[in-house]
Amino acid sequence: MDIAALVTDPAAWAAFVTLVVMEIVLGIDNLIFISILSNKLPVEHRARVRRIGISLALIMRLGLLSTLAFIASLTKPVFELPWQGLPNAYGEPSFELMFSWRDLILIAGGLFLVWKATLEIHEKVDPNEKHGQKETKDVVINNVGSAIFQIILLDLVFSVDSILTAVGMTDHLPIMFAAVIIAVLVMLLAADPLANFINENPTVVMLALGFLLMIGVVLIADGFGIHIPKGFIYVAMAFSAFVEILNMLSRRKKPPQADKSLH
Length: 263
Description:
mainly alpha, two-stranded antiparallel ribbon
């Protein structure tokens, strides 16, 4: 089907809109990670690192879309372990230890995300004392390079998940390309406001780290063939964010306490 036929096809537009929404939702995980990581850098480097991270995400997604045969090969099993878990109520194995490259990428990415989120949570709960406030140029460069490297690793994981979702929803390559580009542009527009909001609200930082920890566990489970419906995950995240917004509004409207020294 050519471009002109797709433009006039209502089913193609429905698939396009649905895919854009799905890609934006899937990009939230990527954006939260980039925001938290970039906020640890000096202020003058944060916006640049966020733009680099999101640009790399776009390049990876478009690169993967251009090699659909390679994407299809990622879902083929590469090896299988003999143990398949305890039988369930129907006498069938509870899960199969048959791994594809996609599974291995998701497990590695999930482990990295769990490790990174746990490390960040530990630093927030028990911050290390800093010896001196000034950083040398070499240290700043190393920090920026480390942040970009970590963003590249997670971009790869989220890109594979994103493109496999796109391939599963439509057979038309132009729709996939357009949806991915629009979703990443939305991420680019939302990056700075989201990062600033997270940085200005310490409790939101902890909530976002909790999200990343949960997403890491979901990726690991998915890699082992235990598929947790992502709708449940995002509904839980949205509900938690809604409760946190209510707490923030409550704190802002709370009247200041009277100075006890006046009594």
